[in-house]
Design goal:
Elements: E1 7-12, E2 17-22, E3 28-34, H1 45-55, E4 64-70, E5 84-85, E6 88-89, E7 97-99, E8 106-110, E9 114-116, E10 121-123, H2 126-136, E11 142-146, E12 151-157, E13 160-167, H3 169-179, H4 192-204, H5 209-222, H6 227-245, H7 247-250, E14 254-258, H8 263-273, E15 277-281, H9 286-301
Length: 302
């Protein structure tokens, strides 16, 4: 390593752990990825064992803070970190749950997620990405779209998460493309025209989406719909239905899309086709920026 570790930052999801070692200035000394996500670990001590395993030979000699976000703070995780309630700022160090550890060389702080009472909704991990965005752009005022398995739409104003809504679009795509009758015609590749046509169709006629979904199967059997076009049409129908439901969030609003290439590209194209004011934000380091901000706040209170 090029310097002493001053902090570990961890994004602990359901399937993966991303771990960064930071020096005193916040610069990354190294990053490691592990497949020991929350879903593979028993609550409690198994998480500390996995963390120590990820750190490996770089375990510090002195006590070092570990700032954790994500599913490690869920009921099935390391220790439950109670939700902050929207409207609120993205939770920081002052809201974190301190977790006892067997080793005195790690001081673990798990950041809470955010809940919304009415209508009921929750997020864990996305709030840290939002904190990273606000750390980069403190005056941001608008809507954040975080595409993924469970896509989040969050209204941000005065550094607060004012309200948010979750759509299970990504999970529905995975289930329908892999486990439904549609799987027989779904292939790889992408057909942008088929995607945008499906977005428009389901936005204008969302009540008919179930019939339009079966139309993918029928078109494959009777009209030779190409596998790439079938995949794109399925994605377009689902994202179009989501945009119809999320219209109060994006219509007439500044929308920042935080996400990886591919799925974020699809959302950007779908929103642009509806005339939305869209901007892309490089999301690769947003979670780390949010964890850094929480660490900085922890140092101020120490």
């Amino acid at each position: 390593m090029s310097g002493a570790v001053a902090c570990f930052a961890a994004d602990w999801g359901t399937t993966h752990l991303r771990l960064w070692a930071l020096d005193a200035s916040g610069a990354v000394l190294w990053q490691r990825d592990s497949d020991e996500g929350m879903g593979k670990l028993a609550p409690g001590g198994a998480f500390e064992t996995a963390l120590v395993r990820a750190i490996g030979p770089d375990m510090p000699a002195a006590s070092v803070p570990v700032i954790v976000c994500g599913m490690a703070g869920s009921r099935q995780g390391w220790a439950e970190a109670p939700y902050a309630t929207a409207p609120c700022e993205s939770p920081g160090a002052a809201d974190a749950t301190r977790v006892p550890t067997a080793t005195d060389r790690l001081k673990v702080y798990i950041l809470p997620g955010v809940k919304q009472v009415s209508p009921p909704d929750v997020m864990r991990g996305e709030e840290t990405q939002i904190a990273g965005l606000i750390a980069r752009e403190p005056e941001f005022d608008g809507v954040v779209c975080l595409p993924g398995t469970h896509t989040k739409w969050a209204r941000i104003s005065a550094r607060e998460i004012v309200s948010f809504q979750t759509f299970m679009t990504g999970e529905m795509f995975a289930l329908l493309s892999r486990q439904s009758v549609l799987r027989h015609g779904i292939g790889e590749g992408w057909d942008q025209d088929a995607f945008l046509e499906a977005v428009s169709g389901t936005m204008s006629r969302p009540a008919g989406m179930a019939a339009q979904l079966f139309g993918i199967r029928s078109s494959g059997l009777l009209a030779g719909l190409a596998p790439a076009a079938a995949r794109s049409r399925l994605s377009g129908l689902l994202i179009g239905a989501e945009l119809a439901g999320a219209r109060p969030y994006w219509l007439g609003q500044r929308v920042a899309i935080l996400g990886a290439d591919g799925i974020a590209d699809a959302y950007e194209a779908a929103l642009a086709a509806q005339g939305a004011q869209v901007e892309r934000v490089d999301a690769s380091d947003l979670t780390l920026d949010g964890l850094r901000a929480a660490w900085a706040a922890l140092k101020e209170t120490a």
